[in-house]
Structures are given as structure tokens and as C-alpha cells.
TrEMBL record:
Residues 346-432 form the Apple domain. Residues 30-153 form the Bulb-type lectin domain. The keyword Glycoprotein applies. The keyword Ribonucleoprotein does not apply. This is G-type lectin S-receptor-like serine/threonine-protein kinase. It holds the Pfam family PAN_2. It comes from Ambrosia artemisiifolia (Common ragweed).
Length: 442
């Protein structure tokens, strides 16, 4: 520094100062974008502890360029967020910049100063800056008020990082849902979306073109009951924040150690995985993914059927039910599912009942299963009240009483049931006396 100053005195002061500024700009990474210094294609922002980097990138085999965020210290570039997923810039466009416009918004401009992508902060803000944090969040801060006007964490792409929220579908105005890339080298939104369902308690869903492709089962206060814990090792890593009436619930993943890579990631093929890289210091490597087995796929056996990965074929009708179409079922087409074998007592014609000798419906317990979709929820009922409610309503097809959730009943068709080899819950299935197996001794 001393010699630098000596030279500075010896030459044209302005030139030296200029060179000094230019070289500082090149050597020192910054985490802040300000109004007077747009970021060019070759520049990047680096978070203060060198965890994340933001800049323009060009995926392999692609002629498109995107603005993205990646882990700074991982050799293989892992993009965790992309700004202009639907508005790429051509790689031949070499004068693009990222700027903060006078209205306070971030803008990607092409060489003709045309806006390719921008945020939509409304209002008049004089002192806005954008900053890349060590959590991987890119924020627009209003330095006059100290408030955050916009943040990339509200718009996850295919990755959920600690600090980001996974929200409820339908309640978030397009925020807080994850969506897959079209392919590994195309960040355009693909067919898969991940978010929470709006019911109580919520479930995580993977949707393919808006149809369910996997679900986690409802949250019991510590875990999702459709993911047996031994498999997952995820429950210490995942939190569900209770829903509020406007926005519903949020799922977050915990930050165990900032130097560790941890993210939930939705692949282009719809596989959803949780990745934690441990370093042997008490934090283990976790890599969990779904769908991982045939029975993970939503409703693979159709209605009133149960899926068992260890069986061949994997699908069986529930007790008391027979295939809707024997022919298709035997050929392995399970889409139509199963139908009830014999009418329930509660469905029978009351006037003709007196003459018949049938007995009231029974409940059959199915052990260790992934409970069906479309539950109705009675948080205040105990197990007896739950059973009585179900028995008293002919539309009630089954009930379950689960620690941490309490009473759940099923009115609609029973869909997406799996027999687990360990863990799982008990389902009490309503059957006619004849189908319950209790009449064989008569
Ligand atoms: C790019 O294309 C080459 C040759 O077609 C292929 O081997 C490679 O896997 C592709 N890379 C990506 C990331 O798709
Ligand atoms: C930008 O692209 C134009 C035309 O494609 C080319 O003539 C020019 O040299 C490029 N400039 C830089 C800095 O790469
Ligand atoms: C923004 O800054 C300009 C110049 O410093 C000033 O004239 C103007 O009043 C400011 N506007 C607001 C909304 O603070
Ligand atoms: C901008 O907001 C983020 C998120 O709250 C914060 O971490 C950061 O310190 C803020 N930066 C400035 C310069 O105010
Ligand atoms: C976790 O995975 C990383 C990368 O694959 C590996 O280097 C490390 O040894 C693993 N740590 C443990 C505790 O298994
Ligand atoms: C299975 O049956 C349904 C109608 O029940 C039909 O639409 C579908 O194409 C069949 N699937 C296969 C793989 O044959
Ligand atoms: C019920 O049974 C009575 C006597 O068998 C018959 O007249 C009546 O039509 C039946 N009602 C229905 C809804 O099936
Ligand atoms: C049975 O429960 C459903 C759903 O809660 C309700 O709509 C229906 O009225 C109930 N039926 C009777 C007979 O209570």
C-alpha cells in the first residue's frame, strides 16, 4: 500500500485513482448491488462469508443465459435460484446487465437497454440496494426505512434452502411453491410442482400437471405420517409452521451448520430429494428421496385398494372389496380400483330391514399403513367419539385415531393406501357384517 501511494504521487493523480478503483472492483468481491454500479455479464456478487454467488450463467448445451445463485465453494456448479427462468437472454447478447432502476426495482437489461426481467416493487424508493446474503437470499433493501421490499426467498425455483418457506398451494399468489426445471440444462418451469395442501393438518404434495403424484401424509406435529421415520431421518430437519387464515402453513428446513450444504430439491423428473452433506462431526449425510418405490406413486392401485411393495403384483383390493373390472385388474391395469362386495347395513332399505337378519356394520383394523388421502379432521374427538361419529354417518368409510392429530374420518373414496413393512398407522375400515369375517362362526 505504501509503495502504491508513492507511485500515485509520481503520476497523474486522477489516472492512478481510476486504476486503483478499477483494480479494487476486480479484486474485491462485493455482496451489494447499488444504483450507480450495474453488474455486467462477467461480474458476480458474493455473499460476505463466501457461501453463495450470484451472476449470469449459461447452462451446458444451451444458447440461453440466466441470472442465478449458486454455492460459491462447490466445484460442480449447483444453481439454487434463477431469476429469468421464463425470459432467457441469448448468449450472443453480450452487453446485458443487472441494475437497480430508479423506481427501486431490479432489472435485467439487454444490450439495447430493454428490460428482459424485473421485480415488481411498487412505490417510490430513493435508497434501495440489493444484497446477496449468506443464507442465499437476494434482497432489495430500502436503506431509508430499513425494510425489505423484495426477496428471492419468496420465489423458490427447484430448491428450498434453510430460511425459505414452502407454502400452501392456492394461498400464495405464486409465491413459496417449488417447480421443477424442464431438464438439467433448462430452468424453464417443468411439469412438477411441490407445495402444501390447504387441508388441516396439511400434507406435502408433488403435483404433475396439477394432478397429485406423491403425498407425504398429514403432519402430526413432528413428522409426516405417510413417511415412516426410520426411512427418512428427516424429522429433525423439517419444521411445519402452523397455518394462519390468509396464507396457510409453511414448511421450512433447519439450518444445522452454515458451512453445510442442505437443500430440498425437485428434479426435472419429479423426484423430490432432501440432501444434507455432513462432515462426520455429528451431522450425518442424509439423502432421502420420493417417489422411491412403486407404491410411492399416488393412487397407483386405484380406489379401495392397497399397495405393498414387497408383493407381486403390488396391488390388492381392500378386504370386502373386489376389482371394478376383473379382466383389467388381472392384466395389471389398476386405474379403476375396487368396489364394495356387499352392501353396508346402513345403506339397506329400512322397510325391508325388519325381515332380514343382517347385523350392523363392523370396523376392520388395517395395521401399519399409509392412511388414505382426503381425510376429514376432528381435533377434539377422542377415539370412542371418533368411532361413534363414523358409525353414525353412513357416508363414513373409515376412521383413524393418530397421536398428535386425533380423529380423522374418510367420507370420499379411499385413495392412495400403502401397506408399510414398518411404522405406519392403523385404519379402521367400515365393512358389512358379512365382509368383516366375523360371521363365519355363525
Ligand atoms: C450436453 O450434450 C452432450 C452431448 O450431447 C451430453 O453428453 C451432455 O450430457 C450434455 N450435458 C448436459 C448437462 O445435458
Ligand atoms: C459482443 O458481440 C459482438 C457481436 O456478436 C462482437 O462483435 C463483440 O466483439 C462482442 N463483445 C465482447 C466484449 O465480447
Ligand atoms: C429522492 O432523492 C431526490 C434527490 O436526492 C430528492 O429530490 C427526492 O425528494 C427524493 N424522493 C423521495 C421520495 O425521498
Ligand atoms: C438487507 O436485508 C437483509 C435481509 O433482512 C439483511 O440481512 C441485510 O443485512 C440488509 N442489508 C442492508 C445493507 O441493510
Ligand atoms: C458425506 O458425503 C460427503 C460427499 O459425498 C463425503 O465426502 C463425506 O465423507 C460424507 N460424510 C459422512 C459423515 O458420511
Ligand atoms: C387402464 O384402463 C383405463 C380405463 O379403465 C384406460 O383408460 C387406460 O388406458 C388403461 N391403461 C393401460 C396402461 O392400459
Ligand atoms: C324399500 O323396500 C320396500 C319394500 O320392499 C319397497 O317398496 C321400496 O320401494 C324400497 N325403497 C327403496 C328406496 O328401495
Ligand atoms: C355425514 O357427514 C357428511 C360430511 O361431514 C355430512 O355432509 C352429512 O350430512 C352427514 N350425514 C349425516 C346423516 O349425518
Amino acid at each position: 500500500m505504501g509503495t502504491g501511494r508513492t507511485t500515485a504521487v509520481n503520476c497523474h493523480c486522477m489516472t492512478c485513482l481510476y486504476i486503483l478503483i478499477i483494480s479494487l472492483r476486480h479484486c474485491m468481491s462485493t455482496d451489494i448491488l447499488s444504483k450507480d454500479s450495474p453488474m455486467s455479464l462477467t461480474q458476480t456478487l458474493v455473499s460476505s462469508n463466501q457461501v453463495y454467488e450470484l451472476g449470469f450463467f449459461n447452462p451446458a448445451n444451451s444458447t440461453n443465459r440466466y441470472l442465478g445463485i449458486w454455492f460459491k465453494n462447490i466445484a460442480e456448479k449447483t444453481i439454487i435460484w434463477v431469476a429469468n427462468r421464463e425470459n432467457p437472454i441469448s448468449i450472443s447478447e453480450n452487453r446485458s446487465t443487472l441494475t437497480i432502476a430508479n423506481d427501486g426495482n431490479l432489472r435485467i437489461l439487454d444490450g439495447n437497454q430493454k428490460t428482459v426481467w424485473s421485480t415488481n416493487v411498487r412505490g417510490q424508493f430513493n435508497g434501495t440496494i440489493a444484497q446477496l446474503t449468506d443464507m442465499g437470499d437476494f434482497c432489495i433493501n430500502d436503506t431509508t426505512s430499513g425494510s425489505i421490499l423484495w426477496e428471492s426467498f419468496d420465489y423458490p425455483g427447484n430448491s428450498l434452502l434453510p430460511g425459505m418457506k414452502l407454502g400452501t398451494k392456492g394461498n400464495t399468489q405464486g409465491k413459496h411453491l417449488m417447480s421443477s426445471w424442464k431438464s438439467d440444462d433448462d430452468p424453464t418451469p417443468g411439469s412438477f410442482v411441490v407445495g402444501l395442501s390447504a387441508e388441516q393438518p396439511p400434507q406435502v404434495f408433488i403435483w404433475i400437471n396439477s394432478k397429485p403424484n406423491w403425498r407425504s401424509g398429514p403432519w402430526d406435529g413432528g413428522k409426516f405420517i405417510g413417511i415412516p421415520e426410520q426411512d427418512a431421518g428427516y424429522s429433525e430437519l423439517v419444521n411445519l409452521m402452523p397455518g394462519n387464515s390468509q396464507e396457510g402453513a409453511y414448511l421450512t428446513i433447519n439450518l444445522l451448520k452454515s458451512s453445510h450444504i442442505q437443500r430440498l430439491y425437485l428434479q426435472p423428473d419429479g423426484v423430490f430429494r432432501l440432501k444434507y452433506w455432513g462432515d462426520g462431526s455429528g451431522i450425518r449425510n442424509v439423502s432421502w428421496e420420493v417417489p422411491a418405490s412403486p407404491c410411492d406413486v399416488y393412487g397407483v392401485c386405484g380406489a379401495y385398494a392397497i399397495c405393498t411393495n414387497e408383493k407381486s403384483p403390488i396391488c390388492d383390493c381392500l378386504r370386502g372389496f373386489v376389482p371394478h373390472s376383473k379382466d383389467k385388474w388381472s392384466k395389471g391395469n389398476w386405474t379403476r380400483g375396487c368396489v364394495r362386495r356387499s352392501e353396508l347395513f346402513c345403506e339397506k332399505n329400512v322397510t325391508s330391514l325388519a325381515s332380514s337378519k343382517t347385523k350392523p356394520d363392523q370396523f376392520q383394523m388395517l395395521k401399519g399403513i399409509k392412511l388414505p388421502d382426503h381425510h376429514h379432521y376432528f381435533p377434539y374427538m377422542d377415539t370412542d367419539e371418533c368411532q361413534q361419529w363414523c358409525l353414525g354417518n353412513c357416508s363414513c368409510k373409515a376412521y383413524a385415531y393418530v397421536q398428535g392429530i386425533y380423529c380423522m374420518v374418510w367420507i370420499e373414496e379411499l385413495m392412495d393406501i400403502e401397506q408399510f413393512s414398518y411404522g405406519g398407522e392403523n385404519l379402521f375400515l367400515r365393512l358389512s357384517y358379512a365382509d368383516s369375517g366375523k360371521c363365519k362362526f355363525l
